[in-house]
Each structure stands twice: as structure tokens, then as C-alpha cells.
Known about the structure:
By secondary structure, the protein is mainly alpha-helical. The protein has one domain. The chain has four helices and four strands; from the N terminus they run E-E-H-H-H-E-E-H. It has helices at 29-55, 67-82, 86-91, 108-138, and strands at residues 4-7, 16-19, 93-94, 103-104. A two-stranded antiparallel sheet has the order 1-2. It has a two-stranded antiparallel sheet with strand order 3-4. Helix 1 (29-55) packs antiparallel against helix 2 (67-82) and helix 2 (67-82) packs across helix 4.
Amino acid sequence: MALSRTVSSSPDNEPIHLEYEPGTCNIGPAEITRRRRTGHVGVLAPFGLLASLLALDAPAVARGLIALPATAAAVGYLQAHFRFCAAFGFRGVFNFGAIGEQQAVGGRARMAVDRRRAASITVAGVGIGIAAGILAILLPA
């Protein structure tokens, strides 16, 4: 079971060593890129949705719908930043290889730590999404 991998995908092209650490790091470069891409798409979606809702003169409460894609964006960016996939944390797996090569973390203690970290990322992402939704509701029409 490969628990670590040295890669050269840091922003300054310096080699970095990624290693599975319970609650700290459970994804490698391919998975990090995937989460970052989710964040990029998720950031564009709320603006498009908000523009559409404003153009349709939708009720202010409807603008709160941007909370959903904003949450997706926040969770994606948080996972990329922390090198930790919440879904993997809840499932008790990690991946430092190609997409789809998950391995079990093994042990209840490791899984418990990962689940706490996954929950904190999820809660933070939902909080950011809700804040974005509230701001959209409060915008003047």
C-alpha cells in the first residue's frame, strides 16, 4: 500500500512530498487538480445564476439559490487547498495516484480523524455557500 509519493506539481515547480496523514492529507496531484477544477466551475455558476435571476426579476429569496453552486465551489477549493477530499475522508480512503486508485486508510482511529476533517471541510463549505446566498438575497434588485 503506497502511503506517499514525491511529485513536482507545486506552484514553483519544486518537488513536494505528499504522504497520507490522517486528517491532514489524503489526495495527490491528480485529485487536487480535480477539486480545484470543481472550485473554478463552481465559482462561475453562482454569477451566471445570479445574473439570470436578476434579468428575470426573480424574487429576492430565489437569489439564495446561488448558495448551492457557491457551496460546491467552496468545498472544491477547500479540498484542493488542504489536500484533503471530504468524500474520501468519510469513506476511509486516500489516493496519491491516478484518478480512481483509492486505497483504504486502515484502522478505526485513522478513519475517525479523517471523518472529523471531512466534516469540518463540509461545514465550512456550506457556511460559505450560505453566506453567498444571503448576500445575493440582500442585493438590491
